[in-house]
């Protein structure tokens, strides 16, 4: 069963949160509400999110201040933030949003389809990164020369070659999905931040593939396995 990604919706007006939920429900992911910047920061302490939709105009801690706190935390600094605002004070206001760490800045009223499409890109990137981390964890187990201290289940192969083949097959599936996503981003002229994130994912996949190839019989010593940047 594939775990759903979490999307954080931050707005002080309940009707706006309800509208966002209606728009994003088609993505079939987990939508988490926060009615203030403080509540959003609290949710980010315990849960991982694929993307944050953050209202700019809120009483107390506004969107800019909330984003600044998010970007200062090591745990949350890389989560994409999409600012939503009902006002537009011109280029300076928009620049302030990007300076605060937003990957996009959308003025209300917005096109529901466009918002849903933008959010879906970051959800896909998040899921691919999760898959990549799983493959990296399996690779680490192989490099450590065992099964993480667990005894193999009945019928499970103890041979390194069997584990390498399984790792290679799983990685190939992620590589195929990442390639399709990159092509989709190119076709749709997506945001620069989304393209950059996809490129970073592809670089990590390339490094992991090289590491696996280095472990193949006859490939030489595993000490030459490239690092993951």
Automatic annotation (TrEMBL):
Span of domain Response regulatory: 6-123
Descriptive protein name: Response regulator
One Pfam family cited in the UniProt record for this chain: Response_reg
Lineage: Bacteria, Bacillati, Actinomycetota, Actinomycetes, Kitasatosporales
PANTHER family registered for this protein in UniProt: RESPONSE REGULATORY DOMAIN-CONTAINING PROTEIN (PTHR44591:SF3), STRESS RESPONSE REGULATOR PROTEIN 1 (PTHR44591)
Keyword Nucleotide-binding: no
InterPro entries: Bact_response_regulator, CheY-like_superfamily, Sig_transdc_resp-reg_receiver
Domain of life the protein comes from: Bacteria
Coiled-coil portions: 164-191
Origin species: Streptomyces justiciae
UniProt keywords, alphabetically: Coiled coil, Phosphoprotein
4-aspartylphosphate carried by residues: 55
